[in-house]
Design a protein that fits this description.
alpha+beta, 13 helices, disordered N terminus, 9 strands
Length: 387
Amino acid sequence: MFRSKTLVVLVIIIAAITPSFSNESKEVKIGRENAEQFEKEAKLVEDPDIVERVNRIGVKLAQVAKAHEVPAEYGSSDLSDFDYRFKVIDNQDINAFSLPGGFIYVYRGLIDFVKSDDELAGVLGHEIAHASHHHMMFLMRKQSKMDSVVALIALTAALSKMNGRDLTNILYGAQFVRTARLTGYGQTAEFDADSTGVIYAHKAGYDPRGILQFLEQLTDYQQKRGEVRNLGIFQTHPPSVERSTRVAQQLADLGVQVDKRQAADLAAAEISLTTVNGRNLSTVSLAGRKVCTVADDNGVSSYQRAQKTRAAINELLREGLSPFELRDNPSTMQLSGRKRVILQITSADSAAIGLPPTTLLARAAEAVRYALWSDWVKTSAMTSDEQ
């Protein structure tokens, strides 16, 4: 009984296998039908400012995609004159996706998450690349071929009068191999969409580093929420940190300079104005903590001293200063790293703030050391994920 039912099921599977799609109108039809079905359930954003922003950026990128052929690492680079459509889903997920034929959807959460039009252009360029390189259609053809293999394996097993348990194991094994293969196809498609999106953004006049900045922020966000997981063969998207590494290399190959610290949203020293006892003084902050507030001293203004301290901190950060290399010396009242002075606490600073010089030095060292440890933890986590 089990064997006869299995044969019927297998015949249905083989008969239902998706045919190869090569006709562009068929591709657009599939995309439109799925888009119509999706929009019956989804709530779309109607805010004119948001809709205009997404369409303005999307149209510029789409024009590039339709005019410039970019070699495909996955799928096909054949140019298609798709009528790209861009819509925003009223959902706070940080996500976006595309359907065959140029139907692009961006979630409201992603719009709120990106920090610039350049980042949004990077994401939209990525989604446009999925459509322009026909990734979904290519994947459907691969899936169709593999479904045929799975069905034939199961049919052969059934005809050989294999018992029910062994037949079930064979089916599970065939599906397991299928999943592993298709997962590999999906990851290659993501890499191809990243690299192609970089080129689209660059040619459309946007900063191609936008997608890198987005991926770095996404990695940080995922790590903070504990969402970076090793899903093995069932992971259809490669880790963001792996994608950002590849994009950074591509940008370097294009001659685009990349500040990895800025892209990764790591700490950078900043200057702000602080009023102390009626006097306007400059304060240097790092990673949300105050490093120092400095006064005018020996003909050098508070702002000039703050500029020097900020430059010294940021230079050492770019060089990869570790927490163990930071030194605070109460005898000289200097904070230093790698034998270079970062900050000199003076009697003028003490008088202006109303605290002992040793206290000011200790607070400065603590603030910088905190930022270094924070960066070390973040970069170590990223390095661990890459391995």
